Amino acid sequence: MQQTNKEAIFDFTSYLDVRRARLEKALDFYLSERSESRESLEKNNWKPSTLYEAMRYSALSGGKRLRAALTIAGAEAVERAPQLKDLDPVELVLPLCAAIEMIHAMSLIHDDLPCLDNDDLRRGKPTNHKVFGEAMALLAGDGLLVMAQEVLLSYCHEKIDKGALLSVSLELCRATGPSGMVGGQVLDMEFTGQSVSEEVVRNIHARKTGALIKFSLWAGGALLQAPERQLQSLARLGEIIGLAFQITDDLLDVTGSAESLGKTPGKDQASNKATWVSIFGVEGAKAKLKEMEKEGKELIKESSLDNPSYPALQSLLSYSINREK
Ligand code: GRG
Questions:
Q1: Please, which pLDDT band fits residue 279 given cuts at 50, 70 and 90?
Q2: What is the rounded distance in angstroms from the CA atom of residue 68 to the CA atom of residue 56?
Q3: What is the pLDDT of residues 209-243, one digit of tens each?
Q4: What residues have CB less than 8 Å from 310, skipping those under 6 apart?
Q5: Residues 57, 131: contact at Cβ < 8 Å?
Q6: Backbone dihedral angles phi then psi of residue 124, each to the nearest 5 degrees
Q7: Beta bridge mates, 9
Q8: Does residue 76 surpass a pLDDT of 80?
Q9: What is the reported pLDDT for 15?
Q10: Is the pLDDT of residue 6 over 50?
Q11: Ligand 1 centroid to 273 CA: how many Å?
Q12: Residue 304 confidence (pLDDT) above 80
């Protein structure tokens, strides 16, 4: 996928491929048994190998890595703290990206469990509980959730400011817990089957999907101590991309196939879920997406996050809207 503008040809596919490869390598290391502390390895030969296998099965099973890409693009777009100027922004945020993708993977494992969405297919493969059983899938999710914070807090570069690290860790808890993803999932369950307003759907999605996406973009800049004005723009752009991503997800549930999506389509309608499509119809949801794209483009242009020869944020905005899976 090439994006052309007046000053440069930006190869977005290569941009993503290079960064995705670095993330996969980092995740592979953090999720290996050798990442357990030396002390615990020396004292204890009994390791929960099946747990690691189940965590790796889901966290290293592909996926678009959109959240990690947003974190990296945010980190690359901002002005960073003086002590970080000579360091590679991608390297600096890799533990953060891994933590985000671990939390995302755990949310998919738990979401697919029989007591929630009861799904058999995820990323084109059998879901975690279909392979490892329900008890191990539950524990693999728990392991990923806690290990995400462990990775973030123990693997960040020594020059990262500890205050910035703490505030990123705190916001990650908020984006994941009752004020974010878990709260959104609960509202989603409670409102399923009811006729709801746009405000309710917005609120559910802002928590369930939006909070982690918004966090991902903001955190790339926050960890590198970007100026407040840039952090505010990243947060707003994160909200726009989060909402656009969800509207696209709702549309794909209606228009996509299991083959192209790697998961079961048509589930929203079957369970009578409140979605953008159920409220506005396919055409209305598409019109909303156009509005979001316009607002996002204007924001990138107006804020100092606009780099004409390196428009990764612009490309990620378009990608989250035009994706086919
Ligand atoms: C205990 C933190 C915690 C969560 C449990 C299950 C649950 C509560 C929340 C579910 C959150 C969830 C699964 C939201 C759906 C988000 C979504 C649209 C996922 C698909 O994301 P993509 O398309 O997936 O980025 P890939 O496979 O590309 O990574």
A1: confident
A2: 17
A3: 999 999 999 999 999 999 999 999 999 999 999 99
A4: 8, 10, 76
A5: yes
A6: 75, 10
A7: 4
A8: yes
A9: 93
A10: no
A11: 16
A12: no
Ligand 1 atom closest to residue 123's alpha carbon, by position in its atom list: 27
> How many A from CA of 107 to the centre of ligand 1?
5
State which of 103, 111, 174 you would mutate to test the pocket of ligand 1, scoring each by most atoms of that ligand within 8 A of its C-beta.
111
pLDDT tens track for 151-207: 999 999 999 999 999 999 999 999 999 999 999 999 999 988 888 888 998 999 999
Which residue bears the tokens 């290293």?
Answer: 60
Domains and CATH numbers, the chain: 9-322 (1.10.600.10)
Quote the ligand 1 centre to 185 CA distance (angstroms).
Answer: 9
Q: Cα(22)–Cα(18) distance, rounded to whole angstroms?
A: 7
- Residue 250, both tokens: 């709702």
Identify the sign of the CA torsion 159, 223, 30, 66. negative
- How many helices (DSSP H) and strands (DSSP E) are in the chain? 16, 4
